[in-house]
Amino acid sequence: MRAPDVPEGVLTLGVLLARLSPVVLELLAAPLGVDVPVGRVLIAGAGDDVTMAEGDVVLLVGVDAAGEAAVAGVTRAAAARAAAVVVKARPDQHAALAEFGGAHGVATVAAPSSADWGQVFTLLRTVTSTAGVAVHDVDHAPADLFALANAIAGAVGGATTIEDRQLRVVAYSNLEQPIDGVRRDSILGRSVPPYVMQRDEIVATYRRMWGNTDIVHLPADDEQRVRARMGASVRAGDEVIGTIWVVEGERPFDAAAERALRDSAPVAALHLLHHQAA
Question: How far is Cα 55 from Cα 78, in angstroms, rounded to an integer?
Answer without folding.
Answer: 10
